[in-house]
Write a structure and sequence with these properties.
Distance between the termini: 44 Å
CATH topology of the largest domain: Rossmann fold
Strand content: 15-25%
CATH class of the largest domain: Alpha Beta
Helix content: 40-55%
Strand order of the largest sheet: 3-2-1-4-5-6-7
Number of helices: 16
Radius of gyration: 22 Å
Mean pLDDT: 89
Number of domains: 2
Shape: globular
Length: about 425
């Protein structure tokens, strides 16, 4: 596989007549299992438009091949060479100053700075960049964290919201985030849901991969397999998933669960290993732990896609999201979905009763009932799986790039 050379990107970035967009990411980028990682790297590696040049500055990216194009993206020059680490308040302040100084120093090499994490350095970015005649945009990805209503409720929220209004544009990954942004007085808000960042799934169900992966995981070929993809953390509702699986597994001897995602600090330094231990011990006590497979983080895109092919139902009892990539991936693979109903988020991705079932947050009974319907009815699983695959076409990469280009063009011409 070819790798795009940093020097080539910078030579192109200085070509006249093009809009140059600098994507600015956090220390954790590339070191954590997240949809933001996958989408940003896939966007930059697969971007084909010659009118707009994209580049990436921020954390040192660990090797990955989760790109959506033919190229793996290689970071041109890291702003955060040491990656993720525990930092004191003084250390965080130094990082803020470092990012702002970096933006000022390199302002000549881009037209728009596109930020992907929210901190005081990011919030101060627009005011600084406007001094150099540059524009700043922000991608809003998690309701309850970086959306205006959540920010306003935090310490220093009034100041933060005032600074957020300085952005020249907002990319909201779901209707709920877009609505909150507009209602809070933010300008140039576009609702741009995530695209399929795992193109191997475009080809549909793969019987060969299904058998191969099940054999590798020691899962019976005739088992019914539930799949969860995400960090093993409270926000993703893995404890709810565990409780529901215990109930279902005691009724269905052929039911298995595959959990894909970081479960230790070795996978992701932010993981709460005590939480993971409690979940696993609960499965042990119930006597069903032998039918749960923990794969850890999957960085190889073919291996990652194989887990979807090996499953029958995708279960996602998350407590908070922006726009989960995994729902798009699961439906593209032809899996029916049982997911938490988050207004303007998961109900935008999943068509209730058509591509899967939605249930209220924290409701283990409803989660279990929704999953039970899919486990017990192979005809319904197949019908919803085909509908899910058709529904997932709305998350195409080409359409995403066209909409993002139009957004950048609008921002570049935006005058305050």
């Amino acid at each position: 596989m070819d790798v795009a050379k940093p020097a080539d990107r910078h030579t192109e970035a200085r070509a006249p007549g093009k809009i140059r967009v600098l994507h600015v990411v956090s220390r954790e980028f590339g070191h954590r299992f997240s949809g933001v990682n996958h989408c940003v790297l896939s966007l930059l590696s697969g971007w084909m438009d010659e009118d707009i040049v994209l580049d990436l500055w921020g954390s040192a990216v660990r090797p990955t091949n989760l790109g959506s194009g033919d190229l793996d993206y290689e970071l041109a020059a890291p702003l955060w060479p040491s990656g993720t680490q525990t930092r004191s308040r003084v250390g965080i302040l130094k990082d803020y100053v470092r990012q702002l100084a970096f933006l000022a120093t390199h302002a000549h090499s881009f037209d728009i700075a596109h930020f992907h994490s929210l901190g005081w350095d990011t919030l101060a970015g627009p005011a600084l960049l406007h001094l150099f005649g540059k524009k700043a945009v922000f991608s809003m990805t998690l309701h309850g964290s970086d959306n205006p209503s959540a920010v306003a409720a935090m310490r220093g929220g009034r100041l933060a919201i005032g600074l957020m209004r300085g952005f020249d544009g907002i990319v909201a990954v779901s209707p709920r985030l877009a609505k909150d942004s507009v209602g809070s007085g933010l300008k140039n808000v576009i609702c741009l849901p995530n695209f399929l960042a795992l193109p191997q799934l475009k080809h549909g169900p793969d019987a060969v991969a299904r058998e191969k992966v099940r054999t590798e995981l020691a899962v019976p070929l005739d088992a019914i397999v539930l799949l969860f993809v995400g960090s093993v953390i409270s926000r993703k509702g893995v404890d709810l998933l565990s409780e529901s699986f215990v109930r279902l597994a005691l009724r269905h001897d052929d039911l298995w669960l595959v959990v894909v995602g970081p479960q230790s600090k070795a996978d992701d330094p932010t993981i709460d290993e005590a939480f993971v231990r409690d979940v696993r011990e609960g499965l042990e006590r119930a006597g069903v732990a032998s039918r749960v497979v923990w794969t850890g983080t999957a960085r190889d895109k073919d291996t990652f896609a194989g887990y979807y092919h090996a499953a029958d139902v995708f279960v996602f009892p998350t407590r908070a999201e922006g726009m989960p990539n995994v729902l798009c991936e699961a439906m593209t693979a032809g899996l029916p979905v049982a997911a938490t109903h988050l207004d303007g988020i998961t109900d935008f991705a999943v068509a209730e009763g058509v591509t899967g079932f939605l249930f209220p947050p924290e409701d283990v009974d409803a989660l279990t009932q929704a999953t039970e319907r899919l486990v017990s009815d192979p005809v319904l699983r197949a019908k919803m799986g085909w509908a899910a695959r058709a529904h997932s076409k709305r998350f195409g990469f080409e359409e995403y790039c066209r909409n993002l280009k139009a957004f950048y063009v609008k921002v570049a011409g935006f005058s305050r």
